[in-house]
Write a structure and sequence with these properties.
The chain is an alpha/beta fold and about 375 residues long. The protein is about 35% helix and about 15% strand. It has two domains: about 240 residues, Type I PLP-dependent aspartate aminotransferase-like (Major domain) (Aspartate Aminotransferase, domain 2), CATH 3.40.640; about 130 residues, Alpha-Beta Complex (Aspartate Aminotransferase, domain 1). Helix 2 runs parallel beside helix 8. The longest helix is centred in the C-terminal third of the chain and has 20 residues.
Length: about 375
């Protein structure tokens, strides 16, 4: 397949890697632990599924294509992908991380990586002078944009110019927007991470993660880490991800359309004190979003009038699901302070604005009017 086709066509994904001998339209699940050889010295390309598997290889090629990258590596979860990237750095390394990140990443950095001698500095990459945090041993800057859950927007191209000038890696978690709306490699990032569990898989039925990049030497190191630690995505979950990708473009369009309508509705609710959605013109990062993305995505965070009101909403939703995660076809509502960000130190949560009045919506592809009616119903109980 040519790389100059549309994103929607790339999502269909055939002819990017290997073809099975029968030319199946739905790429086969090679559900095998090992592969045989006819004779000593034969190179079939596949030996053992922990190392490589045809279904996973197909997925990796498709994922790399969607991010306009050369190398794609599929892991057993998003956190396995983040962990593998952190394993690139040895004791004594210093990494600058954004102050507003998914709680699981914060837990990994604070409770695991620091025990292995990696030093972290926390910085609001969207508004602070990142250069002032750089040390002689700084090896990378790690961020999300938009951030989870406060929706801060960082200028990736501007930050990439700085990191390249200092020979520092720029690592961007692109989970919230997916490759459909944002491609950090095109903006100068060195490594892109995805929780494939979210928009890429898109159906809340499988867990996976991706690292996508252009540097083949770093990719080889990551594949060694994957093979050695056993953090590879299974063949069946690889197939589920391939199936999910086929509808990625249409899902993202519909979810974003719904999110825009819901964000506007929330703006005018007397029960809502703050709406955080980068697609709103008054969002502080709106102009940067317009410059570096093709859309604002479908994640909304908002504050309500009190903790009691937030609890009432969570306890009474019916059309939404009160659940962690995001990016599926169903709308999910999450309470970050006790769910996704419970592992973040309390003082950092408070500094970031993650309080007991904050709710987070992952807007799905249901009818927008139905979703708004559900909000209205729950608000007025």
């Amino acid at each position: 397949m040519k790389w100059d086709v549309s994103f929607e066509t790339k999502c269909q994904g055939m002819d990017l890697s290997i073809q099975d001998q029968y030319h199946a339209i739905s790429f086969p699940i090679y559900q095998t632990a090992t592969f045989s050889r006819h004779y000593l010295g034969e190179e079939s390309g596949f030996d053992y599924t922990r190392q490589s598997n045809p279904t996973r290889s197909q997925l990796e090629s498709v994922a790399a294509c969607l991010e306009n990258g050369r190398e794609g590596i599929a892991f057993a979860s998003g956190m396995a992908a983040v962990t593998a990237v952190m394993d690139l750095f040895g004791p004594g390394s210093h990494i600058i991380v954004d102050s507003d990140l998914y709680g699981g990443s914060v837990r990994l950095f604070n409770d695991v990586c620091q025990r292995y001698g990696i030093e972290f500095s926390t910085c609001d990459c969207s508004s602070e002078d990142v250069e002032s945090y750089i040390k002689d041993n700084t090896r990378a800057v790690y961020l999300e944009t938009p951030t989870n859950p406060m929706m801060h927007i960082t200028d990736i191209a501007a930050l990439a110019e700085l990191t390249k000038s200092r020979n520092i890696l720029l690592i961007v978690d692109n989970t919230f927007l997916s490759p459909y709306f944002q491609n950090p490699l095109d903006l100068g990032a060195d490594i892109v991470i995805h929780s494939g569990t979210k928009y890429i898989g898109g159906h809340h039925d499988s867990i996976g993660g991706f690292v996508i990049l252009n540097d083949t030497d770093i990719a080889d190191k990551l594949r060694l880490i994957l093979t050695t630690t056993g953090a590879a995505l299974s063949p069946f979950d690889s197939w589920l991800m391939l199936r999910g990708i086929r509808t990625l473009a249409v899902r993202m369009e519909r979810a974003e359309s719904n999110a825009k309508k819901i964000a506007e509705y929330l703006l005018h609710s007397p029960h809502v004190t703050k709406v955080l959605y980068p697609g709103l013109p008054d969002h502080p990062g709106y102009e940067i979003m317009r410059k570096q993305t093709r859309g604002a995505g479908a994640m909304i965070s908002f504050e309500v009038e009190s903790r009691d009101f937030a609890v009432k909403v969570l306890n009474n939703v019916e059309l939404f699901y009160f659940a962690e995660s995001l990016g599926g076809t169903e709308t999910l509502i999450t309470y970050p302070v006790t769910q996704t960000h419970a592992a973040v130190p309390a003082e950092l949560r408070e500094k970031n604005g993650i309080n007991d009045r904050l709710l987070r919506l992952s807007v799905g592809i249901e009818g927008a009017d139905d979703l708004i009616k559900e909000i209205d119903r729950v608000f007025e109980i």
